[in-house]
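agent> fetching stored inputs for the (R)-mevalonate docking request
agent> found them:
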Amino acid sequence: MSSPPSPRSSRLTGFYRLGVAERRRRLLELGALSADGFAAIDPGALPLDVADGMIENVVGTYALPFAVAVNFCIDDVETLIPMAVEEPSVVAAASNAARMTRPRGFRTVVSAPVMIGQIQITHVADVDAGAARLCAAAEEVLADARRLVPRLAERGGGPVSFDVRILARAGLDGGVIVAHIHVDCRDAMGANLVNTLCEALADRVAKLAGGRPGLRILSNLTDGRTVTVRCSIDDAQLASEGADGADVRRAIAAASRFAELDPYRACTHNKGIMNGVDAVLVATGQDWRAVEAGAHAFAARTGIYGPLAVWRERAGGLDGELLMPLAVGTVGGALHVHPGARLALDLAGAHTADRLAALCGAAGIATNLAALRALATEGIQRGHMALHARGLARAAGATGDLVDRVAAELSALGDVKADRAREVFARLCSVALPGIPGGEPR
Ligand code: MEV
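agent> prediction call returned; pasting tokens
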């Protein structure tokens, strides 16, 4: 499928109120997808034989809701963010927060896509001499490494540096050295590439160091492959029902400081970030376990686990900044075979790893902002229960306006349960009721 252009605007007011067919029509009108594109996310779109080729012992496929978070403008490009996630509030939270950022949008800085491969060398008799020999041979090792990945070099990537650390002078494994080869992986996530290089170089590197080759594998602490995302929100955007914007701003900055002081809070704060990041990673067929592992190791890089995004007050508003490692790819991996992942990248207009990383980061800071704003005001439960009520209304059979009506009545009754949803739905079907307004507009 050829890539559709980016939408004129991702500001799709009331998108969440439409039915699935209407949402698809809206995306078609926007030119965000071609009509045949949706087949890739229809139920059962992943053929069993394709799934069988992806992993071992397949007995079926497993579906998740695939949604579009709206309102994102990232580096001046209107962007629809694909998300696959089971948690009801994530897409709503991302879209709401992105709406707040719209006057200025998200700004991103993505580093070069450099991954680290590790070669462990054990039983080194003299680690200082071994490390010195490796450092002296760095250029030769790099030249060998470059010869091993000629196609990557043609695309402007390849091994860029080689360094060495002494991990132990003596012990059960004798003297231990680790050699790092840093590889610019361009648009690939790079795991296979880096692992292949490490395996090919290990014997030579261990011999140079005067030790035995140990593990040869990439590191998921990809601190050379990061994304920074900034956004700036005025008080007027932060205000919510019954909450003054300046009060919300102060409360969010205080929530950020709480995460900066306390690893117990920082972990949950980061979970709110990963809600957005992971939803994009899953939709786009990425190795989300790798990104999760890297994110948390990075969060603990100073020796104390801290937040991946922080919020600071400025006159009349709030500035947010997220910095995290994001190793993603737009070639290779599951993308060759998974139809939904390909479609997600097309929908997002993410045809390079840089752009995909920027989108993931923007989704992450958005879900963080939405969580902190809710926690700093009414708490998260009202919003969660409202979304849960809409889900139950739909499951009870409600469509169109009836979804809001059933959900509003369940919330008003304070009884958000499946049985009650069926009861309310049955009653509303037989009685004409006046319109009931929905939640906060998105
Ligand atoms: C829930 O999925 C995420 C939050 O706990 C994040 C946070 O506490 O910041 C609401």
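agent> quick read of the result: The pocket of (R)-mevalonate is lined by residues 87, 268-269, 271-272, 275, 371-372, 375, 380 (CB under 6 Å).
agent> awaiting further instructions
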